[in-house]
Amino acid sequence: MTILFLLGCFLPLLSATVVLDFNHIERCKDSLYMGTPPRGFTDNNLKRICQRYSDRPRYVTLYDPQKRIPVYSAYTFKKTEGDRRVDYPWMFEPQLAETDGNGNMQPFPTGYLHMKFEDSQAVLDDYSDVVLYERGHLNPDQHQSTPHDRAATYTLTNVVPQIREFNIGPWRQYEERIRLRLNNFCRGVAYIVTGVTTRGNMIRRNNQDRVAIPEDVWSAYCCPDYDRNSPSDVRIRFPTYGVLAKNAKDENNVHEMPLMELENFLKSNLDVDQNLQIFYDNCISPSPLPLYLQHTI
């Protein structure tokens, strides 16, 4: 019993960045509403990554090492002016291939990268000769404010192949629309989860299937503390709302929808059970007002 207890105590240190549970790393769960990840994902091969940069957890990712893309990234939104930075180096996650090191994501080396890293995740060569697709962020840098938080989004464990016209068109416009909405009307912390669905299409390299190509891109935010005096067309989109779009050149409009509608779609298009829930208790926060005043909200 004593040995098991000690192993449990040291598990956070041994697990480093790739963890059995997001709560194993101090502050990692801060990226999740009520410290709770989306529930209902049933694939035991998925890896939980506490995305750590410069010795600090930045956000979390559920990663599929077989498809070599994230299933979702979850992060807290930071108010920004929306400018984008593109001079950060692209990084990879050493802990997907080995358990030593300090748990930080690392820039890709200029020389040879051992095959064991290519086996566990996407590498730059997977995207180098692809014309149709760009590296599309799930946690975008323009939703982060500090240089370190922005730099941490430039890891291939946070990106998926997105059709160029979709990435620079409807999806970028959506990210900007949400940035402005949360900047202006979210009074507290906003939590965002962004993910994908797939249908089996892959980017191939050296005659091998390498990186899954998303069929759909989806996202949802949770902001329990919002401006209740906001315009009605804005207020109906709080405390939580979702979006869904096709990762395609045409017919790729981003459709906003209530969270439950998005979850119903995902139950039919993701490897999840019927208990799927993106945010704990659907982002319903107890009202601080006494009961007799709650009708005024």
Please provide a written account of the structure.
With 297 residues, the chain is of the alpha+beta class. Helix content is 22%, strand content 30%. The strands form four sheets. The chain has an eight-stranded antiparallel β-sheet with strand order 1-3-4-5-10-11-12-13.
Assign a percent range to the helix content: 10-25%
> Quick check: average pLDDT?
87
The number of helical elements comes to: 7
C-alpha Rg (nearest Å): 19 Å
SS elements, strand count: 14
**Helices and strands: which structural class?**
alpha+beta
| Measured distance between first and last alpha carbons | 52 Å
* Envelope shape: globular
Oligomeric state, counting identical vs distinct chains: single chain
Strand order of the largest sheet: 1-3-4-5-10-11-12-13
Main sheet, how many strands, which sense, barrel?
8 strands, antiparallel
Describe the secondary structure blueprint for this structure.
Blueprint: H1 2-15, E1 18-19, E2 39-41, E3 47-53, E4 56-64, E5 69-76, E6 91-92, E7 106-107, H2 115-120, H3 125-128, E8 133-137, H4 147-151, E9 159-163, H5 164-185, E10 191-205, E11 208-222, H6 232-235, E12 240-246, E13 255-257, H7 259-269, E14 272-277
Antiparallel strand pairs: 1-3, 2-14, 3-4, 4-5, 5-10, 6-7, 8-9, 10-11, 11-12, 12-13
InterPro entries: DNA/RNA_non-sp_Endonuclease_sf (IPR044929), Endo_G_ENPP1-like_dom (IPR001604), ENDOD1 (IPR039015), ENPP1-3/EXOG-like_nuc-like (IPR020821), His-Me_finger_sf (IPR044925)
Organism: Champsocephalus gunnari
Keywords: Signal
